[in-house]
Amino acid sequence: AGTVTAARSSMSTFGQFAIAFGDFPSFSSSSLYSGTDGQIGAIYIFPNVTRGVDAWVEIMDIQGGATLDNIDDQSTGYTVCFQPFINYAVNTEGYFEWKISFKKAGTPTDTTLRKLTATGVDVDGGSSSGKQIREYIEATMPTSYSLDAASTLTITNNNGRYRALGGTGTFSNI
Predict the structure, then answer these.
(1) Model's pTM, two decimal places?
(2) Cα separation of 159 and 164, whole Å?
């Protein structure tokens, strides 16, 4: 019993991967709540991602020499999205694993969202120092997912962990 305002982008010419759960949260103005910035166990709070709800983002795992440059890079991309900037070592599968919990605003009390939509944007590839780069996004047990008809993403399901793997090409202006 309320109004949800959704922002939609005009990006439709490249493959997009969506994990459908429903509402459109807005991530911005994060702060480190506990732990060491960029390390396993660090918790960041994004206030008011939806009306009356904060998102607590915890680093659960770091693999392949990946490092966190910025928990939420607002200098480029779609700024209302959660968009961490991650550095990785060449010839590794470097990644961060995140846990996002939703809390009643200003409290550590868990809350439940009826629906949540997560969309991976700019899941592509490229090359660095002559090595191929392939990006991916992974979600555990999504209710559903959908792909643009022109998508080049490859979807796999490994015991409920759905991965959308980008190709080796780079899409500009995303």
Answers:
(1) 0.74
(2) 14
Residue 75, sorted as left (phi over 0), alpha (psi -120 to 50) or beta, turns out to be: alpha
Residue 174 CA, distance from chain mean position: 15
Instruction: Provide CB contacts within 8 A for 67, sequence distance 6+.
Output: 38, 86, 87, 88
For strands 31-34 and 43-50, give the pairing: antiparallel
Pick from 120, 134, 159, 123: which is nearest to 20 by CA?
120
Say which residue the tokens 């305002």 belong to.
Answer: 5
**pLDDT tens digits for range 52-110:** 999 999 999 999 889 999 998 888 777 788 888 888 777 778 889 999 999 999 999 99
Residue 127: alpha-carbon gap to chain centroid: 22
